[in-house]
Amino acid sequence: MSRQRRHVLAGFAALTLLAFLWADLSGPAPDPWLTLRQVGWGLMHPSLPALPALTYAAALTVAFALCGVALGAGAGLLLAPLYQFTPVRWLCVSVRAVHELFWALLLLNITGLSPTTGILAIGLPYAGIFAKVFAEYLEEASPAPSRALPRATGQITRLLWANLPQCLPQMRSYALYRVECGMRSSAVLGFIGLPTLGFQLETYFRQAHYDQAIVVLAVFFALILPLRYWLRWRLALLFILAGAALLAAQPVPPMADGAWLRFFQDIVPAPIRLDQPMLPWLDKVLIGQAWPGAINTLVLSQIALALSALLAAVAFPMIVPRVSGRIGAAVGHGLLVLVRSTPEYMLAFVLLQVFGPSMLPAILALGLHNGAIIAHLMGRHASTLTLRHDAPRGLTLWGWELFPRLSGSFWALCLYRWEIIIRESAIMGILGITTLGFYVQRNVQELRLDRVVLLLLVTIGITLAVDHLSRRLRRTMRLGNDLRIETSRGQWRT
Amino acid sequence: MVLTGVSVSIHAGDRIALLGRSGAGKSTLLSALQTEMDRAALRVAHIPQDYGQVLELSAFHNVWMGRLDDFGTFSNLRTLIWPSASQRAEVRDVLNSVGLEALDRKPVQDLSGGQRQRVALARALLRGGSVVLGDEPVSAVDPAQGADLLDALAQRFDTGILALHDVDHALRFATRIIGLKDGRIALDAAATDVSRAAIMDLYA
């Protein structure tokens, strides 16, 4: 291990320790066993909730996901060729730095609790992500076909005939992967009131109807796990249109006239609007809310990242047949798929009911979800390694061959998930943990949109800073030059 | 590869074979000529060594690519998605002439190396124009077929400059032979005046 790498890792360990000392892990837990017993009883005795409502919520979950991803993919495809221009790049970076739930909280003030809100909340950040990934694909396309075209061929024709067709297969599989993410986002939007499966789950859980909540969860899995079997490319357009029709038929709660205008008035900082001194306002928002929120976000994400790394390192050999045997690998696969298909927010919500309000549920949820994703990618990578004939088996193989050989990719993956964990940590605030999302949510409820916008800017700033730091660390540690994470994520399902 | 002090004048009607060891500067000379001819606004058909194909698209599309500059963006977009029957027929005729029957709907990635090279030739034949530039355009087909394809190129284009490695092909196609050695022109003469020994010297 290089010295630089060792220094970075030691720094991470020290920060994690510090975060542990800071973190509030002991909430006023009711009695975890009491709730766990009830949840367990529900698990064993599932009972069907009102079927029409459940079916409708499931259909809406799919519809929001498909329409949101379609919007994001369409916009991303249009933006990708322009991604090299700085203003476009910054636009994409900013829209994707704001989490879907934050977008939804903002949009609720303009478009109300309507399908538009849900579609835009998914579509806007996804457009930024699609633009970036598609631009990378286009950049990697071979320049030879374009060179061979007649010189006078126009730019757009060159793009459509020579570059785009080369990237289409990757773009398709990436879009399919994104639909999976869109399903999770769509379900989670239910927690702030949109009529998806998340809304049903929250309702049943809060009423302690665990037997019915379990069924809602099962329906979600039944949709997302076999996604690649029911979402056929030939039928994609049909699915999207059906989804759009379903959403268009949704009743829209009336918004007062001039919602747009009022929104743009409200996001102007109060001191400017009301001609008051600026400093107390800044002090209140930045020192009183953004500072503690940011510290807690960083603390939560640090511990969650460490937990993800630990879980992934231990769990990835589980899906390598040479380590765990054929049956063990199949079981391991199933377990990892289940954990990474569950949205971390939903997981945190459930754990919160068990452990009571503290940072612990959020840490566990983020650690489990991200750990499962890293473990899955590592396991896949491990199965492509060529091993000697007399290579050991079992844990010896893991310790002597797999982990040492894959450690570069492993740290690169962890650093790559760091930015995503930060975004998710901020969101956990909506559940009542005092990260940035907590203050965003409170100001939304008090209709102080100027403060919401400032807090979101702080969130974007932190996300970008971590993204930048992660990229620099990867370069210093000379990691993952050979590892194309977006591509490999895109190829999950191929 | 750097060419030093190379100056060639090409006359309309010349059919030139570029000969020389690999690395002698044939490809460099070809791309320099390409730039010059583009500047002179000549209609040039180009057969690059790597064919410059989009593997995911069908043979039809890869052949039609030779004529994209004849149409506007919207027309090209329509052809990409929904080619007309007459466009298909036109391309099918050219593909038949290079010996690829009933393959126009197949993605190029499913074709063999020789078939792919013939698709590249078909693109040049469909494009037409005053000049054809080719870098080893018949290297992947058998010699007899190669000779036929070279005849087709000679018939379709007034002027042609091809890098070749088969001496028989060169003597059959060319009216003029240019031999390169170490980045310099070592031989430039009418094909009828060149002895085989002089050509073999290039490879010594």
From TrEMBL, chain A:
Protein's recorded name: Phosphonate transport system permease protein
Protein keywords: Cell membrane, Membrane, Transmembrane, Transmembrane helix, Transport
Transmembrane stretches, start-end: 50-80, 101-124, 213-230, 235-252, 294-316, 345-368, 420-440, 452-469
Range of residues in the leader sequence: none
Lipid bilayer topology: Multi-pass membrane protein
Main location, first listed in the record: membrane
Domain of life: Bacteria
Compartments (UniProt record): Cell membrane
Gene Ontology CC: plasma membrane
Lineage: Bacteria, Pseudomonadati, Pseudomonadota, Alphaproteobacteria, Rhodobacterales
SUPFAM superfamilies associated with the record: MetI-like
Source organism per UniProt: Donghicola tyrosinivorans
UniProtKB/TrEMBL annotation, chain B:
Record's keyword terms, sorted: ATP-binding, Nucleotide-binding
Annotated ranges, domain ABC transporter: 1-202
Gene Ontology MF term list: ATP binding; ATP hydrolysis activity
Alphabetized SUPFAM superfamilies for the sequence: P-loop containing nucleoside triphosphate hydrolases
InterPro entries assigned: AAA+_ATPase, ABC_transporter-like_ATP-bd, ABC_transporter-like_CS, P-loop_NTPase
Taxonomy, superkingdom: Bacteria
PROSITE patterns the record matches: ABC_TRANSPORTER_1 (PS00211), ABC_TRANSPORTER_2 (PS50893)
Gene3D superfamilies: P-loop containing nucleotide triphosphate hydrolases
This protein's name: Phosphonate transport system ATP-binding protein
Species whose genome carries this gene: Donghicola tyrosinivorans
Lineage: Bacteria, Pseudomonadati, Pseudomonadota, Alphaproteobacteria, Rhodobacterales
